[in-house]
Amino acid sequence: MEKFFSVADIDNLDLVVQEALSLKANPYSWRELGKNKTLGLVFLNPSLRTRLSTQKAAMSLGMDVMVINMDKEGWALETKDGVIMNGTTVEHIREAAAVMGEYCDILGLRSFPSLKDKVADYTEELFNKFVKFCGVPVVSLESATRHPLQSLTDLITIMEYKKMARPKVVLAWAPHVKALPQAVPNSFSEWMCKAQEQGLVDFTIAHPTGYELNDEFTAGARIVGDLDDALTAADFIYVKNWSSYHDYGQVHPVEGDWLMTNNKLALTNDAKVMHCLPVRRDLELSSEILDGPNSLVVKEAGNRVWAAQVVLKRMLESLKK
Ligand code: CP
């Protein structure tokens, strides 16, 4: 595997989940694979789970890991071509990425969208430049439009906790005070649509008017504007806020009550509730659910390790060829 950026980088979803769960059962059985290999993790934005789980996964594979928080520790990065760098940026991504590629066998990059320049965000300008100039395999630690390690984790968690062959999975929009990226819901949707194609889940998306995602990510999903309709007989609910895609990066007032509570949970098939975290309590998801027996959020975050480990393992195996 040369790059891990989207669901297109994985053919058989059931197979990758089984491989991840076998790593969960035997985390240290591949320690020789990563010996004398270095992973560099580059963060342009904050992280708790992605940073720690990917470091742990790499260490369990025997790799050495270096982390740089570019937003705080690196030189201010120029990402546009053809500019005279007489402003605040100090180093161009062309040199910065290439130098990091000299030090590392595999690199990871986190880069959030601007939510202002839709074209630059949705063409993944920054991520693609980093891949082009660093010259080594790259794993996305969340880019402008996708969060594939999170989505693989979510699939692993659903497969681990499901009680039937083809559970009903619902992506449910939730309120927030800030404009959040579409990366997590885009990514979750494209992974669930492919899982649906492969017979693993039934997938529904519920959101208020104005919060339609880019349909490149939702093809095959049932999409409804009525949360109660979506929740009926659901086995898993994935709660997440996102800002408008069409009115790019904007937050609009919504009609109805979109906060997930125990009352709403009563409509479901005793659904397990998921969220990528971090979550704002009683704004995006109720405390009664987060603290209750149906919440999977902490176990889900724990599974971030196995998603990262299976991806790094496949990348290391490609390096050996
Ligand atoms: N879910 C997730 O990516 O968490 P962090 O932003 O803390 O890495």
Automatic annotation (TrEMBL):
Coiled coil: none
E.C. number(s) listed in UniProt: 2.1.3.11
One example GO MF annotation: amino acid binding
Domain Aspartate/ornithine carbamoyltransferase carbamoyl-P binding: 6-160
Keyword Membrane on entry: no
Record's keyword terms, sorted: Amino-acid biosynthesis, Arginine biosynthesis, Transferase
Classification via InterPro entries: ArgF'-like, Asp/Orn_carbamoyltranf_P-bd, Asp/Orn_carbamoylTrfase, Asp/Orn_carbamoylTrfase_sf, Asp_carbamoyltransf_Asp/Orn-bd
The protein's annotated pathway: Amino-acid biosynthesis; L-arginine biosynthesis
Binding site for N(2)-succinyl-L-ornithine: 142, 176, 240, 280
Catalytic activity, reaction form: N(2)-succinyl-L-ornithine + carbamoyl phosphate = N(2)-succinyl-L-citrulline + phosphate + H(+)
GO BP annotations listed: citrulline biosynthetic process; L-arginine biosynthetic process via ornithine
Domain (Aspartate/ornithine carbamoyltransferase Asp/Orn-binding) ranges: 202-313
Taxonomic superkingdom: Bacteria
Residues bound to carbamoyl phosphate: 47-50, 75, 110, 147-150, 276-277, 304
SUPFAM superfamilies: Aspartate/ornithine carbamoyltransferase
Record's function text: Catalyzes the transfer of the carbamoyl group from carbamoyl phosphate to the delta-amino group of N(2)-succinyl-L-ornithine to produce N(2)-succinyl-L-citrulline. Is essential for arginine biosynthesis.
Record-stated family: Belongs to the aspartate/ornithine carbamoyltransferase superfamily. SOTCase family.
Name of this chain's protein: N-succinylornithine carbamoyltransferase
Lineage of the organism: Bacteria, Pseudomonadati, Bacteroidota, Sphingobacteriia, Sphingobacteriales
Name of encoding gene: argF'
